[in-house]
Design brief:
Layout: E1 17-21, E2 24-27, E3 32-35, H1 38-41, H2 50-62, H3 74-86, E4 91-97, H4 100-117, E5 125-129, H5 138-143, H6 147-151, E6 160-163, H7 168-171, H8 178-196, E7 201-206, E8 209-210, E9 217-218, H9 223-234, E10 237-241, H10 256-259, E11 265-268, H11 270-273, E12 280-285, H12 286-293, H13 309-324, H14 327-346, E13 352-358, E14 361-366, H15 382-393, E15 395-396, E16 398-400, E17 410-414, H16 422-439
Parallel strand pairs: 3-15, 5-6, 5-7, 7-10, 10-11
Antiparallel strand pairs: 1-2, 2-3, 4-12, 8-9, 11-12, 13-14, 14-17, 16-17
Helix pairs in contact: 2-13, 3-13, 4-12, 8-9, 14-16, 15-16
The protein binds 4'-deoxy-4'-aminopyridoxal-5'-phosphate.
4'-deoxy-4'-aminopyridoxal-5'-phosphate (PMP) is lined by residues 40, 99-101, 104, 133-135, 207, 211-212, 241, 243-244, 269.
Length: 441
């Protein structure tokens, strides 16, 4: 086997994936893996979907590439129309890029340019949340709140400060109602804006349902509406990052619809291309777009592959499949089953502290002690061991480590394809339970 690919890990060559079919991947040795996390919440339609393949073949036969400096294309236009039609109220424009980090990067730059165009150049800061992840390019990394990731590349390009997360399992006080907790968590934004000087801040960014860094933690009811109010009160743009939780993953095309909140800027990626093509999108309100259109008339940004016809054709087929196959209802139904099975099988496990999520986006938090919620010692690398045990048994799941505050436990994120059936849900839960049992006895 050649070994010149510079992979994520330099500690060895992983198995070679050679084929995907439905909810399964196969490696070169013929081993089958149940894709319990869609890779990283990517493969929402499963592997080798016939409609997406057909759309890609058709597009390839017609037009593979036309540079956006000269042209738009039919699939890009149709995709933008479909996204706007499904998006929260007020989203009118779609900027197509090639992935999640690019979408966040574009959102930050668009926010900055918006304030320059409307004559508020002093607004340059971003507020985000602790422990958040919004991508790995330098701007997106600057927005994210993971101290370890940030430290290595400091000083970062965008001045960002971080407020508490909305994380009821860890942060809700004894005797505090969920509604009061949601208000308190959101009010941290107002305090931070007042501390910084609100007219120096351009945007607040958050995931409506936190994916990789917390394990499918939804905002509590009332939190996002209050965040919206605070942003409006101080003229700050609200960026919702739905790179992971968007495109039907939570049972709504856009997760924020569940919260009844529309942002100013909205990012999607992973499930949009569903693994068939690298693509991401930034959705913007008419107000933000108009400021640029009637100002300089040119967004100072761009990537060679943005709006790529093949990527747009794949994404259009994905959006069409989600809508025409009524997959949002299916995600809600199968998500409820996954949740119920997880609770049945793991609900009483001494090291399972919390089971949460929405739709087919579920998380399990592992703790040393259920009563005190004390996490495992991070040095034990519980999440890595669960991942390895599950992978060896033929299950792909997405575990992540305990967190910077030293208080959160290791967790496992589940985000299977929307086509997962009841038997596969049972297999997933059984294999995961065995991996947890072997790792946290
Ligand atoms: N935002 C969120 C919420 C993400 O989960 C991710 C990827 N895990 C990104 C942004 C970055 O996306 P990408 O890896 O496609 O650049």
């Amino acid at each position: 086997m050649p070994d010149h690919v510079f992979g994520r890990s330099t500690r060895g060559v992983p198995p070679v994936a050679v084929r995907g079919e439905g909810c399964y991947l196969f490696d070169a040795a013929g081993k089958r893996y149940l894709d319990g996390s869609g890779g990283a919440a990517v493969s929402c339609l499963g592997h080798s979907d016939p409609d997406v393949r057909a759309a890609l073949h058709r597009q390839l036969d017609r037009l593979a590439f036309a540079h956006t400096g000269f042209f738009t294309s039919e699939p890009a236009e149709a995709l933008a129309d479909a996204l706007v039609a499904a998006a929260p109220e007020g989203m009118e424009r779609v900027y197509l890029v090639s992935g999640g980090s690019e979408a966040v990067e574009a959102a930050i730059k668009l926010a900055r340019q918006y304030f320059l165009e409307i004559g508020q150049p002093q607004r340059h800061r971003v507020v985000a949340r602790r422990q958040s992840y919004h991508g790995n390019t330098l701007g997106a990394l600057a927005a994210g709140g993971n101290a370890w990731r940030r430290a290595q590349f400091a000083p970062l390009l965008v001045e960002t400060s971080h407020i508490v997360r909305c994380y009821a399992y860890r942060e809700q006080a004894a005797g505090e109602s969920l509604a009061d907790y949601g208000r308190r968590a959101a009010d941290a934004l107002e305090e931070e804006l007042l501390r910084l000087g609100p007219d120096t801040v351009m945007a607040f960014i958050a995931e409506p349902v936190v994916g990789a860094t917390a394990g499918a933690v939804p905002a509590v009811p009332g939190y996002l509406p209050r965040i919206r109010e605070i942003c409006d009160r101080y003229g700050v743009l609200l960026i919702l990052d739905e790179v992971m939780c968007g495109m039907g993953r939570t049972g709504r095309m856009f997760a924020c619809k569940e919260d009844g909140v529309a942002p100013d800027l909205l990012t999607v990626a992973k499930g949009l291309g569903a693994g068939y093509q690298p693509i991401g999108a930034l959705l913007a309100t008419g107000r933000v777009y108009e400021a640029i259109a009637s100002g300089s008339g040119f967004f100072q940004h761009g990537h060679t592959y943005m709006g790529h016809p093949m990527a747009a054709a794949a994404a259009l087929a994905v959006v069409t499949a989600i809508q025409e196959r009524d997959l949002l209802a299916q995600v809600r139904r199968r998500g409820a089953r996954l949740d119920a099975r997880l609770r049945e099988v793991l609900g009483d496990h001494p090291h399972v502290g919390d089971i949460r999520g929405r739709g087919l986006f579920r998380g399990i938090e592992l703790v040393r002690d259920r009563a005190t919620k004390e996490p495992f010692d991070p040095a034990l690398g519980i999440h890595r061991r669960i991942k390895a045990a599950a992978f060896a048994a033929g299950l792909i799941c997405y575990p992540m480590g305990g967190t910077i505050d030293g208080r959160s436990g290791d967790h496992v994120l589940l985000a299977p394809p929307y086509i997962i059936d009841d038997g596969q849900i049972d297999d997933l839960v059984a294999m995961l339970a065995a991996a947890i049992e072997a790792t946290c006895p």
